[in-house]
């Protein structure tokens, strides 16, 4: 799997946008970038994924650079409930049963 | 929104006893998984399951572990003779899969079973 690098922790003021960076300089052309988060004592929660284009859903936006070597997850208006560990994961394309390999992620603390 | 459900939320078992953790995946999903997370550590892959067979398993998933889909809705993880080091959160996940493969289908996780071995 392509390796990802994320800052270990970040703070964000409540109501402001949270921008979580991820480097994946060894990503292959057909690998997807996925983001999950894990709120304390809960299971990992899927947020969003993308290949080349920027993506947006009801939870977040994903911005992937043109060279695909890095991406940013944007939570547009962070709330206290967004406090969690955020995982950036690159998944190889070999089959629908491909496992998810979690790293240590970024611990986002949303501050009132 | 459909979700993966796991029972029980907390299981306390004596060392050496057998334990079965239960999961109900999302109904139209085809691929099923178990992961575990020891307190303070990363989430680790254990096993994936498709078409009534194990697709992949990690080194952690030794002969003490087994998985089963006994009916059309449940997916279980059995630990035959539990050890102290099996104490962890166990997460079940499922995904739709994709025709012809491809990693563009997300896995959806349950909230886990906390297994405590005494």
Can you walk through the features of this model?
The complex is a heterodimer of chains A (112) and B (118). Chain A has 112 residues and is an all-beta fold. Chain A has strands at 9-13, 18-23, 32-38, 45-50, 55-56, 61-64, 70-75, 84-91, 106-111. Chain A has no helices and nine strands. Chain A has a five-stranded mixed beta sheet, with no helix packed on it. Chain A is globular, with a radius of gyration of 13 Å. The model of chain A has no long low-confidence stretch (mean pLDDT 92). Chain B has 118 residues and is mostly beta strands. The interface between A and B is medium-sized, with 25 and 32 residues.
Quick rundown:
The complex is a heterodimer of chains A (112) and B (118). With 112 residues, chain A is mostly beta strands.
E-strand count of chain A? 9
Fraction in helix of chain B: under 10%
C-alpha termini separation of chain B: 37 Å
Q: What is the radius of gyration of chain A computed over CA atoms, rounded to a whole number of angstroms?
A: 13 Å
* Average pLDDT figure of chain A: 92
Key descriptive features of the protein:
heterodimer; A: 112 residues; mainly beta; 0% helix; globular; B: mainly beta; seven-stranded mixed beta sheet; four-stranded antiparallel beta sheet; 47% strand
Secondary structure blueprint with pairings:
The complex is a heterodimer of chains A (112) and B (118).
Chain A: E1 9-13, E2 18-23, E3 32-38, E4 45-50, E5 55-56, E6 61-64, E7 70-75, E8 84-91, E9 106-111
Parallel strand pairs in A: 1-9
Antiparallel strand pairs in A: 2-7, 3-4, 3-8, 5-6, 6-7, 8-9
Chain B: E1 5-7, E2 10-13, E3 19-24, E4 31-37, E5 44-50, E6 53-57, E7 65-68, E8 75-79, E9 88-95, E10 108-109, E11 113-117
Parallel strand pairs in B: 2-11
Antiparallel strand pairs in B: 1-3, 3-8, 4-5, 4-9, 5-6, 7-8, 9-10, 9-11
């Amino acid at each position: 799997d392509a390796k990802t690098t994320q800052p270990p922790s970040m703070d964000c003021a409540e109501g402001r946008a949270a921008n979580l960076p991820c480097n994946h300089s060894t990503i292959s052309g057909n690998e997807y970038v996925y983001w999950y988060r894990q709120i304390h004592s809960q299971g990992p929660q899927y947020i969003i994924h993308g290949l080349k284009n920027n993506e947006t859903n009801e939870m977040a936006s994903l911005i992937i650079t043109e060279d695909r070597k890095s991406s940013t997850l944007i939570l547009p208006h962070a709330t206290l409930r967004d406090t969690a560990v955020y995982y950036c994961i690159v998944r190889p394309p070999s089959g629908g049963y491909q496992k998810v390999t979690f790293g240590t992620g970024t611990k986002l603390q949303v501050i009132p | 929104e459909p979700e993966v459900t796991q029972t029980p939320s907390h299981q306390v078992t004596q060392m050496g006893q057998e334990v079965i953790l239960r999961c109900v995946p999302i109904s139209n999903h085809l691929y099923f998984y178990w992961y575990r997370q020891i307190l303070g550590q990363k989430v680790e892959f254990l096993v994936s399951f498709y078409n009534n067979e194990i697709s992949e398993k990690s080194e952690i998933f030794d002969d003490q572990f087994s998985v089963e889909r006994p009916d059309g809705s449940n997916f279980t993880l059995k630990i035959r003779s539990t050890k102290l080091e099996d104490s962890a959160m166990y997460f079940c996940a499922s995904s739709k899969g994709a025709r012809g493969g491809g990693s563009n289908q997300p896995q959806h996780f349950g909230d886990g079973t906390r297994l405590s071995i005494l």
